[in-house]
Design goal:
Length: 91
């Protein structure tokens, strides 16, 4: 995410009194630190996740570029646990 867009989203969250939660693939160290400073959660993903229905695209990306991609039709238990732990910690 571009830095100006990232900062704009953080400002909106602060204005609305929300804790920011960004599931993102490659946050910069600066973005990661900013999220931590405002009590937010930057959940780093190594794999680019696509919704169901994109199997052809995911297959092409993998076959041509060998980039980490996948399709999720539901949140994995590990990711769910991270979100729930963060949520319960901030209640």
């Amino acid at each position: 995410m571009k830095q100006d867009e990232f900062e704009e989203k953080l400002e909106m969250c602060q204005f609305l009194g929300l804790l920011p939660v960004f599931p993102i693939r490659c946050p910069s160290e600066q973005q990661y630190a900013q999220m931590k400073d405002c009590g937010g959660l930057a959940l780093k993903f190594k794999t680019r996740i696509f919704p169901p229905g994109f199997q052809g695209l995911v297959t092409d990306i993998w076959n041509h570029f060998r980039l980490p991609v996948g399709i999720w039709d539901e949140i994995t238990p590990r990711v769910e646990a991270i979100f729930l732990n963060y949520h319960h910690h901030n209640l």
